[in-house]
Design brief:
There is one protein chain. This protein has 461 residues and is of the alpha/beta class. The protein folds into two domains: 101 residues, Urease, subunit C, domain 1 (Roll), CATH 2.30.40; 308 residues, TIM Barrel (Alpha-Beta Barrel), CATH 3.20.20.140. Helix content is 34%, strand content 19%. It has 14 helices and 17 strands. Strands 6, 7, 8, 9, 10, 11, 12, 13 and 14 form a nine-stranded parallel β-sheet that branches. The protein has a four-stranded mixed β-sheet with strand order 3-2-1-4, with no helix packed on it. A four-stranded antiparallel β-sheet has the order 5-15-16-17, with no helix packed on it. Strand 1 and strand 2 form a beta hairpin. Helix 2 packs parallel to helix 3, helix 2 crosses helix 14 and helix 4 runs parallel beside helix 5. The radius of gyration is 21 Å and the shape is globular.
Length: 461
């Protein structure tokens, strides 16, 4: 449904990396901004917005089905627990969720993401086949479930069907509990073409170097269009395995052998060395950070000062859905660095942007738009008309000077900082009882009283 042309007026809005006063926002019939003009007296024919306005951010890395596992892996039943044991338990969702359950889970998640300040989500989609591992009659059945969920919630969606061929560098095939993931280059390209929707676009993904043969990765890069996302260097074990199999670290291998450019978005990139950062910067590729998940899974801390100093495009993602709001992700990102480096305001740039929150927000705004496949993003003419209305009556934001509101949103942890959210010129509900009820039903079906599966021993695939 097309947006209705409308005129809005905000007392303050975030434009070009700073707050501007008295801003006229005109939405065109196509749901994009026709005009963004600061320093305009409130027109009589414009609807006044009650509060400061921010552009929505892109959630640049999501596995929607993992929302059904959030909170269910926070107990340790063995001597050791890490990413790999978490992953084995997470597969308990992956091997059982049905298309109807996926739609219910994703719709609930997408409403939560809207409330958390995201207006577009990049769905890194590797759950493809029926429960027995055979393709559905329509191979895009689970893709359609996600598209339908996004339409119901009202969020924008970038679908990223993933290439997934093997369980590890030396494995010839997938493990039995990965049976729903398998795809070829042709499969991925067909899935990219299959998704349709008014707020839907598509790129492609490669699950990881360990899960895709080099020749397939290169073929997909050559034959596809749009953004290309890829997990890389999330775990130290992955780095070690890559070194053993190829003689290179993961990011190093990509910089040497893959046609890295602005299409590419490296997800996590947690374990890097300075030469790899320099190589990524020289190629123009981006990096997607997921600090909530990286902290929850014990992945480690990225070299945030290195990525910032090199000017690499950065985006933020919710990944495993343990956090579903960008203020919390940015707080995790900065506070992790503070703990590791014994410093404060690590991401700030005193000469150009002394506000840590502002610098991170602006970098994620630009990098997220690119990761989702948009040439323009934010409060600018021609970009999609997405806005977040800040609730300055939220207790954690009360009393803050106007220029410190963004700092407060990130670092004083308000529970619900956004009063209203607009996507493509339409206000979206931030709660939906019927969606929540269907999510409850899906969760009850997936997790009967016996609860989630215990950890299992598995190889590192």
């Amino acid at each position: 449904m097309a947006a209705v042309s409308q005129r809005l007026w905000a007392p303050r809005a975030w434009i070009g990396g700073r707050w501007r006063e008295r801003v006229l926002l005109v939405v065109g019939d196509d749901g994009c901004w026709d005009e963004v003009a600061p320093d305009v007296a409130a027109p009589e024919n414009a609807a006044a917005i009650d509060g400061p306005v921010l552009p929505g951010l892109v959630d640049a890395h999501s596995h929607a089905f993992q929302r059904a596992f959030a909170g269910l892996a926070e107990r340790r039943d063995a001597a050791h627990d890490d990413f790999w044991s978490w992953r084995d338990r997470m597969y308990g969702v992956a091997v059982r969720v049905t298309p109807e359950q996926l739609r219910a889970i994703a719709a609930h998640l997408y409403v939560e993401l809207l409330a958390g300040g995201y207006t577009q989500v990049c769905e890194f989609h590797y759950l493809q086949h029926d429960l027995d591992g055979r393709p559905y009659a329509d191979p895009a059945t689970l893709s359609h479930a996600l598209v339908d969920a996004a339409a119901e919630a009202g969020i924008g969606l970038t679908m990223l069907p993933a290439l997934y061929e093997r369980a590890g560098f030396t494995a010839p095939a997938l493990r039995p509990d990965q049976r729903r993931f398998g795809t070829s280059v042709d499969d991925v390209l067909a899935l990219q073409q299959a998704v349709r929707g008014p707020l839907v676009n598509a790129g492609v993904a490669v699950h990881s170097l360990r899960a895709a043969r080099p020749e397939s990765l290169l073929a997909l890069a050559a034959r596809s269009r749009g953004p290309l996302h890829m997990h890389v260097a999330e775990q130290t074990a992955e780095v070690d395995d890559c070194l053993a199999a190829t003689g290179c670290r993961p990011i190093e291998w990509l910089a040497r052998h893959a046609p890295l450019d602005a299409r590419w978005h490296l997800v996590h990139a947690t374990h890097s060395v300075p030469a790899e950062i320099e190589a990524v910067a020289a190629k123009g590729a981006g990096v997607v950070l997921c600090p909530g998940t990286e902290g929850n899974l014990g992945d480690g801390l990225c070299d945030l000062p290195g990525w910032l100093a090199a000017g690499v495009p950065l985006a933020i993602g919710s990944d495993s859905q343990v956090t579903r709001a960008w203020p919390e992700e940015l707080r995790w990102l900065e506070c992790g660095q503070r703990v590791a480096l014994h410093r404060r305001n690590v991401a700030a740039a005193p000469e150009t942007e002394p506000s840590t929150a502002a610098r991170l927000f602006e970098r994620m705004l630009a990098g997220g738009g690119a990761a989702a496949g948009f040439e323009r993003w934010g409060l600018q003419r021609g970009a999609r008309a997405d806005v977040l209305v800040v609730d300055t009556r939220e207790p954690a934001l009360r009393g803050l000077p106007a220029d410190h509101v963004l700092d407060g949103i990130v670092f004083t942890a308000p529970a619900r900082p956004f009063a209203r959210v607009m996507v493509a010129g339409r206000w979206r509900p931030l709660r939906d009882g019927s969606i929540a009820d269907r999510f409850d039903a899906a969760m009850h079906a997936l997790w009967p009283p016996a609860g989630p599966p215990a950890r299992r021993k598995g190889d590192r695939g």
